[in-house]
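Notes, p. 3: input format for complexes.
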Amino acid sequence: MEALDMDIQKHDEKRQGEAWQSNTEKIQHSKKFYIESYGCQMNFSDSEIVASILQSNGYSATTQYEMADLVLLNTCSIRDKAEQTIRKRLSEFKKVKDSKKGMLIGVLGCMAERLKAKLLEEEQLVDLVAGPDAYRSLPLLITEANSGSKSVNVLLSREETYADISPVRMNGNGVTAFISIMRGCNNMCSFCVVPFTRGRERSRAHHSILNEAQQLFDQGFREVTLLGQNVDSYYYIDPEKNEEITFAKLLEQVAKINPLLRIRFSTSHPKDITKEVLLVMSKYKNICKYIHLPVQSGNNRILQLMNRTYTREWYKAKVDEIKRILPGCGISADIIAGFCSETEEEHQDTLDIMEYCKYDMSYMFFYSERPGTLAAKRYRDDVPEVVKKRRLTEIVDLQNQLSLQSNRDDIGKIFEVLIEGNSKKNDQEWMGRNSQNKVIVFPKEHSDFQKGDYVYVKVLSCTKATLLGKIENNS
Ligand code: 5AD
Ligand code: SF4
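Output follows (475 residues plus 5'-deoxyadenosine):
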């Protein structure tokens, strides 16, 4: 199963834990914090808010947890494996804490609510626990924990959007940034724990989103990703003008900030992405032609059990509409193998819809039962693990072929690429992305481009994950 795990990890890239580096490390504050984030982009974005709250309270960031007075893990509950990884990490921190007086360990994010009692009391692994809507209370929780009491705030809010807090951009490339536009989720996909860990859906005031995007552009950033569990249900009423702001309107307003600022967004529930959004995307060159459209399964019975509220026919028609309005648009998906009672034929339907949609990329998982979800209450997790993993391997193998084919189809094409920095393997090469979110690596060739510049690149060859090219005449 090693190879399979590696494959899953690769496709799970954005969901890996990552330590943070802060340019404010140079500033000598009396107390230091260390934060490690797991899970979705939303969690990484939340850690930037936490960093901002802590810095306003006299803390500075460190990249070495051994040096920290406060060690924080921003956790993910989406699958059992994510929880196990976090438990291992907490045990490592605990060893250092036992030999370091005064060090505090805190758990933030989605595991907070579910595991607070266990982590704080039974296993005594942590000193404080704060749920996704409780980060403003962190200074208070720290004070309580310092005085020896176990401190917890996992209350979920119907209003909190952290709209007034400017996230601290740490460990970034200075070119691309996330902007959180909404929190929570009102969908009740039966497999998913998010509605329970992150609470009800609420949208952030549009003027604070626009201000943040403008500030990022002024600081030299050239790409923003608007983030939410379900961005297409963004909805805000401007109290001054009494104007309704839908996601399509918001997207258009962000696009108008500057043609040099690229806009991406994630995630779109297929039932909510409107034709209006697609039309706005087609109108503005700086809105990237890429849509992440989780399908989860290609079979109608399973989609119904999952409570996804669409059929395979409806989903395929949505993909057709995207391809019609936005020719050449990149499309990716999330796919779950081995959901409760899934048969072999039903699994084949998933492979079939993948072929139909020709996804450029997918995040692929086998089903992991999460306590408290509708599926855990209603259905038996009865597909044996070996079968789930074999089906996942088939899905991963097919996706690899589709990704390779999609990349091969780009050979000979010229793309506008935003340079994000040096390629990982060679500092004589740039790495960037095209509008369709594909990574392109190309030699610098003594040109005087900088990261954050747009450059035309011709694709010469590819792997399944990367396009390889050369700079074209950019005049
Ligand atoms: N088991 C496996 N995968 C899951 N996801 C969410 N919940 C589960 C689960 N219980 C996947 C879905 C979702 C993505 C973020 O994680 O595909 O779109
Ligand atoms: Fe979970 Fe479904 Fe909400 Fe996505 S849309 S966060 S899968 S409940």
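The domain at 176-406 is CATH 3.80.30.20 (pyruvate-formate lyase- activating enzyme).
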